[in-house]
């Protein structure tokens, strides 16, 4: 192989590697943020069907604090906990204030973090972390945080 062909091969390989890296680097953006916001709006409105629509079949929820504290695996278990949460407020919408949304992503998925202050019969402040893989909500952290401040 001549030096010229070797240089061309190296240049082609470098371009291919760069294309590969850029094609596999996901960036959290409007789609992930819109899904997360729709999910949290469904929490506030008490809309069970909207809440459940993005969960993967094998989704996992970690609810930390309060009477619903626990680990929930799969859509059936997650649906049951949301039904209890909605029933606490008699199925009525809850007023809510949100802090600044943060989103992070890589080639494997995206995570969205949101602070929320929910009103209703049982007011509570919550740190949400939602993880999406291939468009499905796979993991949700619901951290009750009474002293939390909303980050604007």
Summarize the topology.
Elements: H1 3-24, H2 30-45, H3 48-52, E1 55-64, E2 70-73, H4 74-88, E3 96-98, E4 102-106, E5 109-118, E6 124-133, E7 136-144
Parallel strand pairs: 1-7
Antiparallel strand pairs: 1-2, 3-5, 4-5, 5-6, 6-7
Summarize the structure.
With 152 residues, the chain is of the alpha+beta class. It has helices at residues 3-24, 30-45, 48-52, 74-88, and strands at residues 55-64, 70-73, 96-98, 102-106, 109-118, 124-133, 136-144.
- Tell me, rounded to a whole number, the average pLDDT: 84
Number of helices: 4
SSE arrangement, N to C: HHHEEHEEEEE
Low-confidence stretches: 9-28
- Most strands sheet: 7 strands, mixed
Helix content: 25-40%
User: How many strand segments?
Assistant: 7
Structural class: alpha+beta
- What amount of the residues lies in strands? 25-35%
Report how far the terminal alpha carbons are from each other. Answer: 61 Å
Shape: globular
| Radius of gyration over all CA atoms, rounded | 21 Å
